[in-house]
Design a protein that fits this description.
317 residues, alpha/beta, Aldehyde Dehydrogenase, Chain A, domain 1, Aldehyde Dehydrogenase, Chain A, domain 2, 6-stranded parallel β-sheet, 21% strand, transferase, NADP, oxidoreductase, kinase, amino-acid biosynthesis
């Protein structure tokens, strides 16, 4: 999964360029009036977008994150300090050079700085008078460490423990397509499915058996929760709060939609979760009660993406 995150092939470079063009083509967000209210005669209150200031973004593994972060910072008028992982240092250095080389002199090439030494982070985290926001993008350990070391506001995002719940009324052909896409398309991504929850009435049915066979054909290793381990004789999972980032996932059976919601809110990471069902009431309950950033009905978790949402890019938050 580490190699998959670090690799920059031609197709990925092309899609990165396209996402930057999409951001460039967007309406300028700065000085855009969101709301205008006359609170009293001749006293007008305006709410506007404005830059945050200087951002320090610390990220792991993926060099394409540098490109997306830089494009978003430039577009939104923010200064930026970037610290990538040592495993992608050469890629990050070249990408930073490419980006700063095209920033016009009127803006200044120092708008985006690249921090190369890990030792410098501790000093930067003390600069609460200069840096306005820190965004650590990586493991739980990284996020926790950054929060403990600074007075600067921290916007933390870590795990991508995404769930797909197949309800008893689900169209199983649709379920098969969604689950395969969510798990197999790009397993190393933070929006890939890590846990498959299935209504207990679907256990030992032809539709579920067919789905499990397809996952096995693709090379997906399935680990079971207590119920799935007993009934399907698959290896038992050590923890429900686990991000594989590879061709593996957890499977567990639940009693109903409420049990699925409770499971997700307890063990998930509030990233992206999906329900597959033809029952509108179950779908509405799921969409309203799952406490995640993105909640989908009959759509793959892989659709949680800044480009897909028409935002050009996003930083996983």
């Amino acid at each position: 999964s580490l190699v998959a995150r670090m690799t920059l092939k031609a197709g990925k470079i092309t899609s990165l360029a396209e996402s930057i063009r999409a951001i460039a083509d967007m309406e300028d967000p700065i000085s855009h009036t969101l709301k205008k209210t006359e609170v009293a005669k001749d006293l007008v209150f305006e709410k506007m977008y404005c830059p945050l200031g200087v951002l320090l973004i610390i990220f792991e593994s993926r060099p394409d994150a540098l490109v997306q972060i830089a494009a978003l910072a430039i577009r939104s008028g923010n200064g930026l300090l970037l610290k990538g992982g040592k495993e992608a240092m050469k890629s990050n250095t070249i990408l930073h050079k490419v980006i700063t080389s095209v920033i016009p002199d009127v803006v200044g090439k120092k708008l985006i700085g690249l921090v190369k030494s890990k030792d410098e982070i501790a000093d930067l985290l003390k600069l609460d008078d200069v840096i306005d926001l820190v965004i650590p993008r990586g493991s739980n350990r990284l996020v926790s460490q950054i929060k403990a070391q600074t007075k600067i506001p921290v916007l933390g995002h870590a795990d991508g423990i995404c769930h797909v719940y197949i309800d008893k009324s689900a169209d199983m052909d649709m379920a098969k397509r969604i689950v395969l896409d969510a798990k197999v398309d790009y397993p190393a991504a933070c929006n890939a499915m890590e846990t498959l929850l299935v209504h207990k009435d679907l256990n030992k049915t032809e539709g579920l058996d067919d789905l499990l066979m397809e996952l096995a054909k693709e090379g997906v290793v399935i680990y079971g929760g207590p119920v799935a381990h007993d009934t399907l004789k698959v290896p038992k999972v050590d923890s429900f709060h686990h991000e594989y980032s590879s061709m593996a996932c957890t499977l567990e059976f639940v009693d109903d939609v409420q049990s699925a919601i409770d499971h997700i809110n307890r063990y998930g990471s509030a990233h992206t979760d999906c329900i597959i069902t033809t029952d509108k009431k179950s779908a509405d309950t799921f969409l309203q009660q799952v406490e995640s950033a993105a909640v989908f009905h009959n759509a793959s978790t892989r659709f949680c993406d800044g480009t897909r949402f028409g935002l050009g890019a996003e930083v996983g938050i």
